Amino acid sequence: MAWVLKMDEVIESGLVHDFDASLSGIGQELGAGAYSMSDVLALPIFKQEDSSLPLDGETKHPPFQYVMCAATSPAVKLHDETLTYLNQGQSYEIRMLDNRKMGDMPEITGKLVKSIIRVVFHDRRLQYTEHQQLEGWKWNRPGDRLLDLDIPMSVGIIDTRTNPSQLNAVEFLWDPAKRTSAFIQVHCISTEFTPRKHGGEKGVPFRIQVDTFKQNENGEYTDHLHSASCQIKVFKPKGADRKQKTDREKMEKRTAHEKEKYQPSYDTTILTECSPWPDTPTAYVNSSPSTAPAFTSPQQGTCSIPDSNSSSPNHQGDGVSQASSEQLQPSATIQETQQWLLKNRFSSYTRLFSNFSGADLLKLTKEDLVQICGAADGIRLYNSLKSRSVRPRLTIYVCQEQPSSSPLQGQQPAGGGGDSGSGTPYVYHAIYLEELVASEVARKLALVFNIPFHQINQVYRQGPTGIHILVSDQMVQNFQDESCFLFFTVKAENGDGIHIVLK
User: Fold this and answer.
1) Rounded Cα–Cα distance for residues 177 and 83 (Å)
2) d(Cα 437, Cα 12) in Å, to the nearest integer?
3) By the 8 A CB rule, do 394 and 482 touch?
4) What is the pLDDT of residues 282-298, one digit of tens each?
5) Which of 23, 173, 223, 436 is the most exposed place for a label (fewest CB within 10 A)?
6) Positive or negative torsion for Cα 216, 220, 222, 224
7) Using CA atoms, how far apart are residues 362 and 380, in angstroms rounded to an integer?
8) Buried b (16+ CB within 10 A) or exposed e, 479-489
9) Which range, of 279-293, 377-391, 461-475, averages the lowest pLDDT?
10) Model confidence pLDDT, tens digit, residues 220-246
């Protein structure tokens, strides 16, 4: 009886072992290595069902993709945004890729689009004080830009533009059908915007943002197409390489379980889609580039553009040369110095020289200005402060004959002095001619003597026996420098307009 019971136990244990083995086999066959969810979804029945349902990816397919050729940090957790370290002033490539599917956005096929690349603050608190932060940066780094394009290295970009009042933005046109790469240089470092308290400051992150626009019906690049951005930190030269190495070494010391919580480091940084920068761009080709309100100098609106007549040395109509009116005088007040800087296209330095009078600015040497404003603007400012006026091609002196004078009385000696015969001395005005043409003579006479230019029909010169000779371009070219003329006006024969007679 005992033998029978023992045999039953052996048989039972064998059956259990066989059953376990069969179960383990089933587990192996149905494991993730044998059947994956992607394999199941690849079956024809599921393919047919998927094709009948709209995919979210089809409705949200971005038209463009921007890839920056800089490695991402390995010390970023899985669900956080990527972080890329850049070296100050180093050129980094941003590849502008056409990501459209067949038939998407046919209106831009074969046409150019405009992209604006910006470096902006990532921190919301700094975004609210962006204007003050950038103004402070300009004060410490006069003449520098936060962002530049390395044009020699860039490929496929057309008509690049930078706005002096937008130091953090560059813009250009490009053809999506062609290879396009924009090489950017970021000149601000992250620690320049952190309070220096105890040393070892933690730099603030920035964002590189690309906004792309197409043309509207008026040919202006204002219709938004796509925006994307990425998070960066900028270090002094070689600092980004050291920081990347430090992060990599820290990650190597972590356990395998801890490493699973962090993203791997990628060789390139893909900019992720975002909302467009809150700035409505103006027309690109037909007008000047857009100006973001946050970066616009408040004094810019006070600068008036002179009219075409101001190119003349005597545009004031009082014989005062333009050179003397535009030259900064030592007696100029602080306010007058500010206006001079604005008028001569030095608006980005108005705050830098906010306490300078004319005498203070004129005392600066060429080396001082180059050190303060940089080489290009420093030399230009020095030339504007020290340069002499350009000598006109021809100078003539003209006096309008008094109404009481007769033609015979008006014939005065060439010295320009004398009396009109009625006790009133002749007062001559200097006319400076940049172009030796008859129309220039008529225009300057109209300007100096307040005669409506459109009413002047012809300009004559009184010749022998009182004949009137038409003043031609060739006659003006043969005027002697510093010649003196009296002139009077006569009504045209048809009563419409006047003639000017020089004698």
Assistant:
1) 30
2) 123
3) no
4) 434 443 333 333 333 33
5) 23
6) positive
7) 14
8) beeeebbbbbb
9) 279-293
10) 888 889 999 999 999 999 899 999 999
* Mean pLDDT computed over 437-466: 86
pLDDT of 316 above 50? no
Phi, psi of 241 (to 5 degrees): -65, -40
Distance set, CA 356 to CA 150, 334, 361, 362 (Å):
35, 6, 6, 10
**b/e map 395-422, b = 16+ CB within 10 Å:** bbbbbbbbeebeeebbebeeebeeebee
Q: 126, exposed or middle or buried, with CB in 10 Å at 0-12, 13-18, 19+? A: middle
Higher pLDDT, 131 or 384: 384
Question: Which amino acid, 158?
Answer: I
Q: What are residue 210's DSSP bridge partners?
A: 117, 228
**Closest to 310 measured CA to CA, from 299, 300, 302, 321:** 321
Please determine, for residue 411, whether its predicted confidence score (pLDDT) is greater than 60: no
Distance set, CA 135 to CA 49, 186, 297, 339, 429 (Å): 58, 17, 9, 19, 47
Contact 63, 104 (CB under 8 A): yes
- Per the CB < 8 A criterion, the answer to whether 124 and 154 are in contact is no
What percent of the chain has a predicted confidence (pLDDT) above 90? 18
The residue assigned the tokens 């730099």 is: 203
Contacts of 314 (CB under 8 A, 6+ apart): 320, 321, 322, 429, 430, 431, 432, 444, 447, 448
Q: Please report which confidence band the pLDDT of residue 53 belongs to, taking 50, 70 and 90 as the band edges.
A: very low
User: What phi, psi does 189 have (nearest 5°)?
Assistant: -110, 155
Compute the radius of gyration of the chain from its Cα atoms: 39
Q: Helices 366-373 and 375-386: crossing angle, nearest 10°?
A: 140
- C-beta atoms surrounding 92 within 10 Å: 21
Q: Measure the CA–CA gap between 328 and 361, rounded to whole angstroms.
A: 9
Segment (H or E) for 210: strand 206-215
Q: How far is residue 224's CA from residue 154's CA, in Å, rounded to a whole number?
A: 23
**202 is written with which tokens?**
């933690």
The mean per-residue pLDDT over the stretch 314-330 comes to 52
Q: How far apart are CA 79 and CA 85, in angstroms?
A: 19
Beta strand 113-121 with 456-462 is unpaired
List, as one string, the DSSP characters of 270-281: EPEE-PPPS---
Place of tokens 């303060």: 372
- Angle at 191 (CA atoms; ends 187, 195), nearest 5 degrees: 135
